Amino acid sequence: MTSTWLETVSKVESMIPLLGKLGREQSVKVQLAGQTLLADSVAGLIAVFDQYPELDLVQVEQVLNNLLDSGVANVSVELEEVLAQMDLTALAGNAPKGGAVPVVLYGFGRIGRLVARRMCAMGHTTPGMHLAAIVVRKAGDNDLAKRASLLKFDSVHGTYDGIVKVDADNEQLIINGQAVKVIYASDPSEVDYTAYGIENALMVDNTGRWRDHDGLSVHLARPGIERVVLTAPGKQMKNIVFGVNDSDITAEDSILSAASCTTNAITPILSVLEEKYGIESGHVETVHAYTNDQNLIDNVHKGDRRGRAAALNMVMTETGAAKAVSKAIPSLEGKLSGSAIRVPVINVSIAVLSLTLKATTTVEEINALLKKASDSAALAGQIGYSAEADAVSSDFIGSEQAGILDSLSTKVRGNQATLYVWYDNEYGYSCQVVRLMEKLAQYGLVTEQASTEQAA
User: Fold this and answer.
1) Superfamily assignment of 261-425 in CATH?
2) What's the rounded Cα separation, in Å, for the pair 281 and 416?
3) Helical ranges in 307-396 per DSSP H
4) With a threshold of 0.85, does the pTM exceed it?
5) For a tag on the chain, would you pick the N or C end, based on fewer CB atoms within 10 A?
6) Angle made by CA atoms 114, 119, 123, in degrees to the nearest 5
7) Is residue 214 packed enough to be buried (19+ CB in 10 Å), middle (13-18) or exposed (0-12)?
8) CATH number of this structure's domain 101-232+431-455
9) Using one digit for the tens of pLDDT, what is the confidence trace for 240-258?
10) What is the DSSP string of 345-358?
11) Residues acting as catalytic residues
12) Interval 382-439: pLDDT, tens
């Protein structure tokens, strides 16, 4: 790192406008070992750079200036790779040209609003896409104002660091100066998105109402929609855990699932352990925050036990997350069982992985392996690492990683390993969804660009 603290501050201050311009004008997201460099905070940037004291901030600033001069757009740039080569030629050649893919959020509940927050966060860039519309059922004459308020103020995640306004005349929200149309509909079949100027859009279904290919195909049948992402486990489609099996996506995949929050939390860590040791069998017990699906007071519920008061009880239930892991890691098919306990906290869950490995190991070896993975560009967004002796669940609210290893709780006896993985089942999962969306948006722009060039 730069030699003195004041020099570091000065250098980082000079990067803020460069990162901001790259994001605003070229839709370029710059990352360091998988961590996004945001244009909103000097302290935030210094905290990221402080993890890499060997980094030459003069070179980093040079790269940012070169990116601006190159005209490269709609891409995510991994700083380590560019610094190693100091050559933007290939990056510029592979970058998609043209405008951003419009995104439609179908449903605006917990995940829908957090996806919107992430996409529209101050200083954050979502390459190749922009939030165009939200589809909801109207909940009264003051619906727009209530939607805006719920986006701005959140009991768990705090006040949104951005500007949210209501444009009642045009039925839209203005989020950080960007107009987002609010479309009122009770069913997908009611909406023609082209009537709102939306073409070739990426639809994100946050309702969970349809979880199979046929049900979600209703979205694809609507004018203006090109691809659909389900923010829940899906049937008859690929379940994608970004960072693990997103390379399986092809041009033919018009409907994809982003799997569940728990599957996203545990699959990256399991993939590292499977590659290093091999996993013979295991059980996943998730201690999960209660959700809106449960009753606040005892009442009838279609599911067993979920009708009992969520804020007063630990509620035994089930999870399909363990079985769903094999959709991302086929070698684990039939090897994992799972169960769940809903507990009286409003957010942040923990998964307990009890594993029989194919080789003996130690606590130190497993922790070192996963610490290295958490620092890698490939998995830094998916695997976090905690060595805090006093860590509790609320400390992980707002975590961007899919899952965070509690390294001080790791237990090993021969080939028997027990790992504890924290996860913000709302925001951490939403960040994974946005990462998948970014890949699909850039993929769509490259495909569209190739088709245009062939036609020419």
Assistant:
1) Dihydrodipicolinate Reductase; domain 2 (3.30.360.10)
2) 10
3) 321-328, 363-375
4) yes
5) C
6) 115
7) exposed
8) 3.40.50.720
9) 999 999 999 998 899 999 9
10) -SS-EEEEEEEEES
11) 261
12) 999 999 999 999 999 999 999 999 999 999 999 999 999 999 999 999 999 999 999 9
